[in-house]
UniProtKB/TrEMBL annotation:
Residues 34-260 form the DUF1996 domain. Keywords: Signal. Pfam families: DUF1996. Residues 1-19 form the signal peptide. InterPro entries: DUF1996. It comes from the Eukaryota. This is DUF1996 domain-containing protein.
């Protein structure tokens, strides 16, 4: 996208820091399951999943609400979020790279992200969306490509950013970052490609007015996951590959299935403007943050695999039919069970977007109960087809943010959450940046460098 002079002026006026609230989410499961893209069957590739325990081969909003627990640190966020799993390739063998600590789900809600006359809205009940493209093997200046980023973590030096996998050793892990589109068409909770009902804003991929085709400006969600790449040898070039068979990194993608208590999320989007970003400083979350049981012992909330498949140890191939393709053209689309099958009977799922709306609620209760006795039963019915704003929902006044957080792992294997105040000055001179990880990344880099010198509180081990 080529930015006009007006767009560049708008870009220069964007906030240098941001208001947000950050939800840490521990791993829930790793399995070849994707109820958005591959409902009722094994997914084409392995995923690393966080969020509500009701995650299943087919599910809707009602399903999420039956979760007995969630790995996210606000108990009424029963959403699920997932990314492709990362593998280390050594010759002809592949080994799963574990997630390091909690994933970070940023809800970026400062009002200066909005265009003139826009109101920031919460995610609608039952929203499902995909950010990124698993078949990409090269990047571009399109916002959907700029919305992915990698940070090579090095707490004894300077972290570096890239759009594809970095060809360098990352001593403190590799962080994958995906920003979801925030402009909604106001009608569809999903679409055939799981993307067309959403769009990125018109100034940057995370700020500016929404296009007229997608006029509802939602809170921006950004997902960050750190992987333990430091546990594997590095010999001068990138040895890692996504479970899709992507060795370039340009196919980074993430999925979101909304499972929030809607009223709670609405209040959080309007009220959680503390510059710390801490959920403890957000009044609507009072009493909803676990006593630290899940945070200190993440395995108190996890699920067994629905897929009959073993991906442990060293594998001779990636799970599924995912061959290594370097590009730069698009990779071939892969989708085969490759001998894997789902536990339970999902045969009455009707498939497609209509099937997702009409049949899931009636189906999932008996299917889950048959596989995992004692699991909560999902109520019948489907999520709302249209989003309705709560009555009397007035637009809040713009708020200025003053800080950014860092959630990371140190060299000793501890997951560290630090909160620091930073100041950033953004100057735009004649052209938009060709490749950025977001207009807030300079502040985050400053924060990480500051944290390296002054860290040590809010520390948790995984």
């Amino acid at each position: 996208m080529v930015l006009s002079k007006a767009a560049l002026l708008s870009l220069a006026a964007l906030p240098a820091t941001q208001a947000f609230f950050l939800i840490p989410c521990w791993p829930l499961s790793t399995q070849r399951l994707d109820p958005i893209v591959y409902p009722g069957e094994p997914a084409s590739h392995l995923h690393s999943i966080v969020g509500g325990k009701a995650f299943a081969p087919v599910m809707d909003y009602n399903t999420t609400q039956t979760s007995e627990c969630t790995t996210c640190m606000v108990s009424k966020d029963k959403s699920n979020y997932w990314v492709a799993s990362l593998f280390h390739q050594n010759g002809d063998s592949f080994e799963l790279v574990p997630q390091h600590g909690s994933a970070s789900l940023y809800y970026l809600n400062e009002k200066t992200r909005l265009g003139s006359g826009e109101k920031m809205e919460p995610l609608p009940v039952g929203l499902r969306m995909l950010a990124g493209d698993p078949e990409k093997r090269s990047g571009s200046q399109a916002f959907e490509d700029q919305a992915i980023n990698y940070k090579c973590l090095n707490y004894k030096g300077t972290p570096t950013d890239s759009k594809g996998f970095p060809d360098q050793n990352c001593p403190d892990g590799l962080r994958a970052e995906v920003t979801f589109p925030s402009c909604w068409d106001g009608v569809n909770l999903d679409s055939d490609d799981h993307q067309s009902h959403m769009a990125y804003p018109t100034v940057t991929f995370e700020a500016g007015a929404c296009p007229s085709t997608h006029p509802h400006h939602l809170v921006t969600v950004k997902m960050e996951v750190i992987f333990k790449t430091f546990d594997f040898p590095f010999s001068g070039k990138n040895p890692f590959v996504w479970s899709t068979g992507d060795p370039t990194g340009f196919g980074l993608h993430a999925d979101l299935l909304m499972g929030w208590d809607y009223d709670l999320l609405s209040r959080a989007v309007e009220q959680c403007d503390n510059p710390s970003g801490r959920i403890q400083d957000c009044a609507p979350f009072a009493g909803l943050i676990p006593e630290s049981q899940v945070y200190l012992d993440p395995k108190t909330c996890e699920i067994d695999s629905y897929v009959n498949e073993d991906y442990s140890g060293k594998l001779s191939k990636l799970p599924g039919c995912n061959t290594i393709e370097f590009g730069p053209g698009r990779a071939s689309k892969q989708n085969c069970a490759d001998g894997a099958s789902l536990k339970g009977d999902w045969s009455d799922y009707t498939g497609g977007i209509a099937g997702a709306v009409n049949s899931i609620g009636n189906h999932i209760s008996s299917a889950v109960a048959g596989i995992f006795p004692g699991s909560g039963a999902a109520p019948t019915g489907a999520p709302a087809q249209f989003y309705e704003k709560p009555a009397g929902d007035a637009a809040p006044a713009p708020e200025a943010a003053k800080a950014v957080p860092s959630v990371h792992a140190d060299a000793n294997g501890n997951v560290v959450t630090d909160w620091v105040y930073v100041t950033e000055t953004v100057t735009v001179t004649g052209a938009a940046p060709a490749s950025t990880g977001g207009w807030n990344d300079a502040a985050k880099r400053d924060a990480e460098e500051h944290i390296h010198k002054h860290r040590g509180h809010a520390r948790r081990s995984f």
